[in-house]
Amino acid sequence: xxxxxxxxxxxxxxxxxxxxxxxxxxxxxxxxxxxxxxxxxxxxxxxxxxxxxxxxxxxxxxxxxxxxxxxxxxxxxxxxxxxxxxxxxxxxxxxxxxxxxxxxxxxxxxxxxxxxxxxxxxxxxxxxxxxxxxxxxxxxxxxxxxxxxxxxxxxxxxxxxxxxxxxxxxxxxxxxxxxxxxxxxxxxxxxxxxxxxxxxxxxxxxxxxxxxxxxxxxxxxxxxxxxxxxxxxxxxxxxxxxxxxxxxxxxxxxxxxxxxxxxxxxxxxxxxxxxxxxxxxxxxxxxxxxxxxxxxxxxxxxxxxxxxxxxxxxxxxxxxxxxxxxxxxxxxxxxxxxxxxxxxxxxxxxxxxxxxxxxxxxxxxxxxxxxxxx
Length: 374
Prior knowledge:
- 64% of the residues lie in helices and 3% in strands.
- With 374 residues, the chain is mainly alpha-helical.
- It has 3 domains: 15-147 and 310-365, no CATH class; 166-220; 227-279, no CATH class.
- A hairpin with an 8-residue loop joins β2 and β3 (107-108).
- α2 (16-27) runs parallel beside α12, α3 (32-49) packs parallel to α14 and α8 (167-184) packs across α9.
- It is globular and about 65 Å long.
- The two termini are 14 Å apart.
- Mean pLDDT is 78; it is low at 1-10 and 367-374.
């Protein structure tokens, strides 16, 4: 029992993982070698730091679905649409078929090249990396701890995000429970046609669980706050700030650097008005987390990786881009960028080494003293 308590105390602070997630998302590029390195580190972090919860055990689902998406994207990218194909390494030719009018009436088929297939594979790896980064965050983060630390102006969005992140794991748990109950009743699942007794209770229980969640939230006074003065003016300004943010991001991503100034102004206006809209009496929060030395190391590594990869993307350096046209070549690999990406595995290394903070050391001494007395 003491080992279990110590392992619970050995977890990271809940605010560390959003920084790790941001660093991982910034590190994703169009280079498949770098993305495979990120995938390996995400799997290592999940193996060493995952929580013993249904949400933490759902990482395998992200792995399987991501691998299926890689195969699907590779196959679809290798099929010419409208007779358009690119690349100089021809593999074979598919017969051309014309789709029905209600599907666009396009011609599907033609010359399949290695560049087309490899381009789809590279895009699929990038998508798989994105899915696994979010899956790893889903497996190691304390969602309820993050929800307790969400600012008041973002509490509703944080609650919606928490429910969305836990939706798939909860559905999996319900499927397992229904399957076990049906097996106890003698039902056997041999093919997809035997899935009706599994799907119907799941669909019927969904609205019931939603109603129970709504009743629980209403009984705890969720959303009952005093409305500030000039609420309509604040909401109009909030819409204007969000529109300015969207336009600025569009201009910035299309090459006009002045758009980033507008995006920053819109974000500042939206945050200020959201803070005023959520103003009200102060409320207390009960948390049992302590910021340890291990949390500082992970936070520093994440911030360094985030800033460094953002600079490399901005300057288009570090071998982050890999183009399969007009002819296939080996993807570039910069050793310095690979070493920089190893910062993603800092949580796993800390967990493997067993670095602990002062509070954890004190807890270990207390548990040892209690064990000696008993």
